[in-house]
Every structure is written in structure tokens, then in C-alpha cells.
Amino acid sequence: MLENYHLNQLAEPLLAWFVDHARVLPWRERPEPYRVWVSEIMLQQTRVEAVKPYYERFLKALPDVAALAACPEDQLMKLWEGLGYYNRVRNMQKAAVTVTEEYDGVLPADYGKLLELKGIGSYTAGAIASIAYGIPVPCLLYTSPSPRDRQKSRMPSSA
Known about the structure:
61% of the residues lie in helices and 0% in strands. Helix 3 (33-42) packs across helix 4 (48-61) and helix 3 (33-42) packs antiparallel against helix 9 (122-133). By secondary structure, the chain is an all-alpha fold. The protein is globular, with a radius of gyration of 19 Å.
């Protein structure tokens, strides 16, 4: 059954639905690499509605990679205050320094190079690559369970 299924059969109706039902979100207005990156990191472990004011404030204070790289830590922590998981923003700043030094302040338009940046995993790299650069890479990757995990899932519970 799945052998005869083509993903393009799903793409057109899904995209049509999105056009009709997509929420208006500030990071969709200008899907530039830095803006996508900031939104993706902020949205980890945080509700969309809660992120909106933080996103606007953060971009007003730090409008580009160079500003993030040069931001004093106390100001950075204050901008992030309320979002929690402070390592996310610390890693963003480390990555911003790398981007400033190695890529002239522009996030690389390369999935593999994005993955090399501190704090950017496969989902965030996929989001930046696909949303900001139009590179056809998945944001979500399915990996099948290992044989050991499959074995454990068949074992009866001792409870």
C-alpha cells in the first residue's frame, strides 16, 4: 500500500490547507535565517503565544547575528528571562560568534554546516534550511527503534 503512495499526493492539499488556516506569527512575516533561528530556539519547550512578546523584544534589542554575538551576558540573560533553559541562549550566542567569525555574520545556507553550530540540532537546522533558504530538507526525521528497544517494548511489565 505505501509502496504506491507518493508524497506529492499529500503536499498539495496540505499546502492549500496551510494557506487557508495558518496562524499569523511574527517570524513568518520575514522568514530570514536569523529570525527563523531565534524563533525556533525560543519555541523549544515554550508555547507559541508565550514566545511572541519575547521574540519581538529580542529582535528589537538584537536585530542580527553580530548584535547577538556582541551582546553582554547580563543583557542577554535579561532578554531571555522568563523563557527558561538559559543554555539555549548561551549556545545561540556561541553560535553567533562562530557565524560572525566564519560566515561574515550570515547563517550558512547549508544543512550540514548549520548542524555544526553550537545548539543547533537536526530539527532547527532543517527549519532554518527549509524555511529561510528553501532547501528541501526535512525538519523531522523518523528513526526506527533499535532492536534492543523493540525487544524491551515486547517485554511484560513487572508492575
